[in-house]
Amino acid sequence: MTYEAIYDMKYVENCIYESLRKYPPISNILRCVTNSYKVPETDIVLAKGCRLIVPVYYRDPETYYPDQFDTDQVLERHQMAFISFGDGPRNCIELRFGMMQALIGMAHFIF
Question: Which of 19, 29, 86, 109 is placed for a possible disulfide with 91 were both Cys, Cβ 3.0 to 4.6 Å?
């Protein structure tokens, strides 16, 4: 089993992402505003030092649908629609390693 073979298992990867979407390890993400920020197209200003809770929400959350993580569907939705690993400068630094371990585990379980 090679690294390339593991990452060619796109449907298994989609299933892992969909499982994380449906059963996230955390229900929301906590962040602290580092600079004042005006939310575009609103009158809302987030003050520096303000703490935010970003809820994890999805349309039709009870349906298990791994195909929504196909490349074409991912490109159609907002980049922050799936944030199970966070995003930006404080995202999960172990994302690639964790995904590789999960894919290897699934491959051994299936085969």
Answer: 86
| Runs of H (alpha helix) within 1-111 | 3-7, 10-22, 71-76, 95-110
Tokens 């930006």 — which residue? 88
pTM: 0.73
Q: Encode pLDDT of 29-76 as tens digits.
A: 788 999 999 999 999 999 999 998 877 667 788 899 999 899 998 888
Instruction: Using alpha carbons, list the distances in angstroms from residue 48 to 15, 61, 86, 111.
Output: 38, 33, 20, 52
Q: How far apart are CA 30 and CA 27, in angstroms?
A: 10
Give how far Cα 83 sits from Cα of 8, 19, 29, Å. Answer: 22, 13, 9
